[in-house]
Amino acid sequence: MAVLKVIEVLANSDESWEDATKKAVSHASKSVKNIRSVYVNEQSATVDDGEVKEFRVNVKITFEVK
């Protein structure tokens, strides 16, 4: 039987929500091992002068506890 744990991570990107999600997983994987999935819980963006400047995600990362 596997035991799984979920953590919540916030990340941002100047490029896209997809890139912000990849950055969240990449950064979390430096200290969290056995990552199994990522769930994008929330997306937002900052706007300046009518243009999107930054994409933000709130993700839930699931990993197996050994």
TrEMBL record:
InterPro entries the UniProt entry points to: Dodecin, Dodecin-like, Dodecin-like_sf
Sequence intervals crossing the membrane: none
Domain of life: Bacteria
PANTHER family in the record: CALCIUM DODECIN
Protein name per the record: Dodecin domain-containing protein
